[in-house]
Amino acid sequence: MKQQPNPSLINLLLREAGLVVKDHSLLLTLLIAPLLYAFFYGSIYINKEEENVKLAIVDDDQTRLSRLLQQNIDNSPMVELIHFSNLEDAKEQMYEGNCQGYMYIPRGTQTNLLSLKQSNVVLAVNAARFLPSSDILASVQAICLTVGAGVRLQFFEKSEGMTSAIAMQNVMPVSLDYRPLFNERSSYGAFLLPGLLALILQQTLLIGLSESVASERQHATIAGWLKGGASMAIWGKGLFYLILFSAYAFFFLNVNYSLLNLPMRGNGFELSLLLLLFLLTLIPMGQFIGSLFKSQLLCLQMMAFSTYPIFLITGYSWPFESLPLPMQWLSMLLPTTPFIQLYTAVVQSGASIWENPKLLLHLILLWAFYSSICYARLYSLRKRTLA
Prior knowledge:
Blueprint (H helix, E strand, L loop, with lengths): L8 H14 L1 H21 L8 E7 L4 H12 L3 E6 L2 H9 L5 E5 L3 H6 L7 E4 L4 H30 L4 H8 L16 H31 L3 H5 L3 H30 L8 H23 L5 H18 L11 H8 L3 H14 L7 H30 L1
Parallel strand pairs: 1-2, 1-3
Antiparallel strand pairs: 3-4
């Protein structure tokens, strides 16, 4: 009987495409989930920053200054004022969750300011919800400082007979030139979305590829896949995912970035090289993980469970240096950790991938590491199946 030739890369590519088409779980994970997640999660943060966060206000001063302060706060797109006649009602509204805090302007505020005495305005915010409380604080604090400086400026000009320039020097002896770079409006959505799109790309690839390998073991088709050798098996199956997810990466960077109004400040060619290296690292990693399971369902459950922990320990949502030391060691084994730092530096700040060679070397070493352990694992499985 004539022995069949070993499969080539193209044969394994076509074989994998056939497996995906026949497997509804793989089809959902690889062809629907990346686009669905990218548009669904992207649409949540499409406005990028909060608007009209409700703040209760009680004005016991009832002066021109207190009305000016309220008018400036209400004109801010961040805050929407809700007026109450007494402080107890304002507190009750905050406790019930109808507003995110309250502001109290006590009697005598204008009189104290005009006589250059300190006057305290109370701002209480619900810090149980971090984002609204920090946004209210930043907006109200800036407006109060501006209005207070304006009152003192008028006092020095009228009462002390100073010129506007000299009065300004007395009011603001130190002038802060605050310029947030790259995320000019300091919006949460503009910070989160680039990393979120990269995580969607990574997790859908890892889940789909590991599922495919686990399916090979579950349905006892692994011998046909490994027939040409471990290296041929890795890159024959991986070629399908490399082509598919390269297309997804191109789509995200052009379509999703445009729809979500995200800047892409870096060099497109360098970013393409970085994404290619990232995908090449994920392919053996996903196959190694999948080879540890004999059940496709169990593999899917474990990989889906890993998504949020991976996001948390890579240093994107929380500074890497502040992670516990064991978490830092674990994070260093994930390709996401060096990739996300390089990727955000390129797309958000326009950096070059060559400006941080340590991160690039880290990603290359992880590619070599996962390629080696994947090869060793598949070589062992091949010996067992052919024995």
